[in-house]
Amino acid sequence: MEKYIGTKEAAEYAGQSERTIRDWVAAGIIPALKPNGKTLLFTVDDIDAALRARAVKPKQSGEGAAE
After folding, report:
1. Phi, psi of 48 (to 5 degrees)
2. Residue 33: beta bridge partners?
3. What is the widest separation between alpha-carbon atoms in the chain?
């Protein structure tokens, strides 16, 4: 089972703002689960795939990245 993280953690991991992450979801750049109709949940693998597609590198561990 994959671990899911919220928008704040996804933004920190990707080195982007929460707004950017929500915009990426709206644009179909990154998939997200919406279990209660409001909260967005992401897998790190999906974030990594979106970053590779956009040629953006995530922050490295120790720089505020989600563990």
Report:
1. -60, -40
2. 41
3. 33
